[in-house]
Amino acid sequence: MTLRPFLIAFSLLAPGILAAQEAGFTPQMPFPVQNALALPAEYDSYALPVGVWQNGQLPVEMFEGQVDRRAWQLDAGRASLLEVMAPLREQLIAAGYQIVLDCDAPQCGGFDFRFSTQVLPEPEMHVDLNEFRFVAARRGPQAVGLLVSRSASAAFVQIITVGDTALPGLPVQDVGMAAAPPPVTSPQTTPPQTNPAPRPPSDPALQPETVARLDAGLPFALDDLVFDTGAATLSHQDYPSLAALAAWIGADPGRRVILVGHTDLSGPLQGNIALSKRRAEAVRAALIADFGVPAARISAEGAGPLAPRADNATEEGRQKNRRVEAIPAPT
User: Fold this and answer.
1) How confident is the model at residue 184 (pLDDT cuts 50, 70, 90)?
2) Nearest-angstrom CA–CA distance, 134 and 102
3) Tell me: the pLDDT tens digits for 207-256?
4) Range 265-271 contact pairs with CB under 8 angstroms and sequence separation of 24 or more
5) Superfamily of domain 203-328
6) Taking the domain 4-163, which CATH number applies?
7) In the chain, which residues fall in CATH 3.40.1000?
8) Secondary structure of the chain: what % helix, strand, coil (to 5)?
């Protein structure tokens, strides 16, 4: 499959896109849309990646204004990521945007890049860590972050825009996504942030079996966490498991973890996935605020009920399935 049909189609759409420049970027998807998600637009700030991950940092430029976050799932068959990305990139250029970053997964920085920038939740936005492309563009005070990835059967597009107006054309759905992990700041664009002094771990945090499990790359279940029923608020109390995890991360500057939230099988799938991600985000926030763990070394995801460790038919099993696990990330 070549890009020629899409570029021809775009040339027919270009006059309308150019006429809409003052209203912001209005994307035209190059393949049929199977599903779409739009979070409520809000006056906010967005850290636009303007460079690749290197030397432990992701260079960003801060933009403030009306922030719009959207994702599309496309019926793209076996089309390559470039065949999905190229028409959208051309639309940005035609709309007067300057491309400031254009990279694929290995060039961008793979795992580190993906987990240092904002990504909408699964299943609406899927990112393959080995197969994604990112484009950053700006036009005066306006900015666009464009992320494209795919699964075996579909392509996924995420567009975050900052400008005076929001993107038209899609109904807004509030899926309860927690705030995305704050990107690592660039010293050229934003002032450095300091983390609070780490809280010394309690004795239970230093159990040898905990260290051995994490050193082996195995999931560590934070089984002592307490959440309100159906909520993502972490009760205020001491958690030896968090102290253990913070101590393990702090012992080696190269260590990073992915926090994965899990639920039981009760309730709708998408709601459980969203809740599990919010709970993982709450644990991430506690590690940063209470233990001084650098934000760039922890990410949060939600699996909902998709990875049970016990039988969902019993209350005891459901309680075991409601958990947050820490998974050491490959270095």
Assistant:
1) very low
2) 6
3) 777 888 888 888 899 988 887 666 787 877 888 899 889 999 999 988 99
4) 265/305, 265/308, 265/312, 265/318, 265/321, 266/312, 266/318, 269/304, 269/305, 270/123, 270/175, 270/304, 271/176
5) OmpA-like domain (3.30.1330.60)
6) 3.40.1000
7) 4-163
8) 30, 25, 45
